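Incident review: delayed structure delivery

Summary: a single-chain prediction request sat in the queue longer than the usual turnaround. Root cause was a stuck worker, restarted by the on-call engineer. No data loss occurred. The affected request and its eventual output are reproduced below so the record is complete for anyone auditing the incident later.

Affected input:
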Amino acid sequence: CAGSDQPWLQVSSPNPDYVFSWAPINSVSAATGDSVQLTSTSGQHNITVSATDPNTGCNAVPKTFSVTILQEPTVSLTASESAICSGEDVILDIDASIVIGPNLDAPFTLNWFDPTLVNNPDSIVTTANPTEETTYSLYITDALGAGCTSDTVSVTVGVNEIPVVDLGPDQDVCLDEIVLLDAGNDTLDILWSTGETTSTIVADDLDNTYSVIVTDAIGCSAVDTVTISSIPVPATGIDPFVTACENESFVLSAASGLASYNWTGDITSTDQEISFAAGDLAAGVYNYEIEVINNEGCNAIDSGMVEIYDTPIADLGPDTLICLDESIILDAGFDGVTYQWTGQQLSSNRTITVDGEILGLGTFTYNLTITTPEGCESTDQINVQVDQCIGIAGVDENRYGINSYPNPTADKVYLEVSNLDSEELYYYVHDALGRSISDLSGRIVNTITEIDLSELASGVYFIKVIEDNASVYHDKVILK
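Output delivered after worker restart:
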């Protein structure tokens, strides 16, 4: 190695008296007999030695030795980056040489101090992956066995922590839910897969995967992704407008198979179905709201209305009795509806006349159906008995001794029964049209029964007493 102690060459000789000469002289630094010190100039030196026997003057055959002197090894080490982001690689580049002469270098061996690099000791380009600040050092030695060793060179590579970004786990959310994604530190440079650069974004497309890259001031980046999947919102399944007649039953129902139901407003319940019997709701409009929640926790809210139509109640009064020579008028009692009479007589008028003389003796049934413009129906039935009423004129037929007074009257009429030995005597009051006044009827339980006509208009009224559907008394009363 050049720069080290200059090497000596020594030849062995059978005669110590031999005289030696060395050439070329420019390769020789000093000579002492059979030894010569070589020059320190690098390169390949061919040294020839000649020997002469001084006693005989004979010359030995010259001999040539080849000696290679290597320049001092040179080596430098550089890193592709003085600092990297955690997880990145760094390229270590070695520039090394051991010169022998022009265009001639000696082979060399790399000697790393880092044990992680021993697997690739001879490459002049090495990839390293430090997890913390690391100093890499090496030296080279010649591969010819000359023992030439370079100085140790080093390079230090810093490691910067990458920024933290966490979008959380994948999410399953309700279809109508607003999902906010947050990249965290808004001091970082942020780039979403949507192209947005704010720290938070709204995930408008719920069935999608979103990613974000965050980069700090020194250029270290981190990436995270999250997948958002949608859960369908349940359907409430209600009929938003339900109509029913006041005398009808109906059911409000929502979609089945959901986790919970909550009806609020004019109608309240936590059941999937709500049943209403006829008359549960009075005529009117009922507004409600319903919230349903499915098994995944998604809810839906809807509103509806129930309208209950007023249904007039058909009321023909109690069954009645008329005499053969009498007639009565049956009145449906309401305007603005349609009428359908069936049974003994067919008609679509509000009133019909029942004439005992036309009907003859017997019991006759009349059915009435009234229908409102909304289609609500009400029905009633009345039986009218036509009787000869023969017992009214004779004392013998009036076996109970019934009498009514005063007549005329200004307000009240009294029924007096002299022989009250029956529990099946009933009295009825009819107006001149034969209409029964239902509030003025009942069973006779005392010998004197008070009948208050003060709420009626002045006119002619009829009082009848019936036993077992047969008339036992009949009188006309004038109310002043």
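Verification: The first strand starts at residue 8 and ends at 10.
Action items: add queue-age alerting; document worker restart procedure.
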